[in-house]
Design goal:
- This protein is of the alpha/beta class and 261 residues long.
- The chain has twelve helices and ten strands.
- It has helices spanning 32-47, 69-72, 77-82, 91-95, 111-118, 145-153, 155-164, 170-176, 186-201, 205-217, 223-236, 241-251; strands at 7-13, 16-21, 53-57, 62-64, 100-104, 107-109, 121-124, 129-131, 168-169, 181-182.
- The strands form two sheets. The chain has a six-stranded mixed sheet, sandwiched between helices. A four-stranded mixed sheet has the order 4-6-8-9.
- Helix 5 packs across helix 6.
- The longest helix has 16 residues, at 32-47.
- The radius of gyration is 19 Å and the shape is globular.
- The protein binds acetoacetyl-coenzyme A.
- This is Enoyl-CoA hydratase, mitochondrial.
- It comes from Paraconiothyrium brasiliense.
Length: 261
């Protein structure tokens, strides 16, 4: 496959793409070249018909310690605003229609926490540390943290975390629902993410895409419009071949052979 300076990319299980952030000397700080590579790698997986789900992880010590502070230090307002600084960070939430499972070990701080929250499912290792420490640098979250953390854990908790810069432990992340699950070892965390991705990749890719789309709509729409949207997509899937494949296989007590159509 393609090689990158700041990423390791592989496909360890059928239908599963794995992207590992690999900038160890800076604890995977998210410099612009890393983000550009990450977008390129995820776009490749989005276009690759053999891939059904993607796992994003870092190292045992750090998922990502945030935006690259050394790169940001001398930015001015006009350069940041004029060049849409970090606008490219959230590209993945629009172009990536395949599920992204984020396996977090070690630090997921600032932009690292924000990147994790752009994923669809977070699995946390025992020493995962989440937080938005921007207040300690004299600034605020800039990659969506104030919005996504608040939706994930509620206003009072998010306000406390963002205003104090205090960290969220793995245990707390699990209890608060920021992480879907917490695991005993870093390896178990990545393995579980890969297994979940493999399971997702084994289903109809049409239905998987629709699942992600409707759940994400819940973050944008009120309940009435959200349920209406879900119903439209649900009805629409009666036009897919895989609806017939899946329901016929159930009735015949057979394993469905998805057509992804
Ligand atoms: N940017 C650039 N470099 C970073 C970095 C970052 N966010 N985080 C760590 N590094 C670098 C360190 O400078 C250090 O490099 P050198 O060896 O060249 O000195 C190397 O990574 C190792 O880090 P430490 O020596 O600090 O490791 P530690 O174990 O003592 O501490 C840490 C780990 C608590 C995560 C600490 O590195 C830290 O506090 N990092 C910054 C965390 C942070 O503030 N993140 C938010 C950034 S702002 C942001 O993300 C804005 C946004 O919302 C978009």
């Amino acid at each position: 496959g393609k090689t990158y300076e700041h990423l390791l990319v592989s496909s360890p299980k059928p239908g599963v793409g794995l992207v590992q952030l690999n900038r160890p000397k800076a604890l995977n700080a998210l410099c612009t070249p890393l983000i550009l590579e990450l977008n390129a790698a995820l776009r490749n997986y989005q276009a690759d018909k053999s891939i059904g789900a993607i796992v994003l992880t870092g190292s045992e010590r750090a998922f990502a310690a945030g935006a690259d502070i050394k790169e940001m230090k001398d930015l001015t307002f006009s350069t940041a605003y004029g060049n849409d600084f970090i606008e490219n960070w959230s590209e993945l939430v629009t172009f990536l229609k395949k599920p992204l499972i984020v396996a977090v070990n070690g630090y997921a701080l600032g932009g690292g926490c924000e990147l994790a929250m752009m994923g669809d499912i977070i699995y946390a290792g025992p020493k995962a540390v989440f937080g938005q420490p921007e207040i300690k640098l004299g600034t605020i979250p800039g990659g969506g943290g104030s919005q996504r953390l608040t939706r994930a854990i509620g206003k009072s908790r998010a306000m406390e975390i963002i205003l104090t810069g205090d960290n969220i432990s793995a245990k707390q992340a699990g209890e608060w629902g920021l992480a879907a699950k917490v695991f005993d070892t870093p390896e178990a965390t990545v393995d579980a993410a890969l297994s979940t991705a493999e399971k997702i990749a084994s289903y109809s890719q049409i239905a998987v895409k629709a699942c992600k789309e409707v759940v994400n709509k819940s973050q944008e729409l009120g309940i009435r419009d959200g349920v209406d949207f879900e119903r439209r997509i649900f009805h629409g899937l009666f036009g897919s071949k895989d609806q017939t494949v899946g329901m016929t296989a159930f009735a015949d007590k057979k394993k469905p052979e998805w057509m992804n159509e």
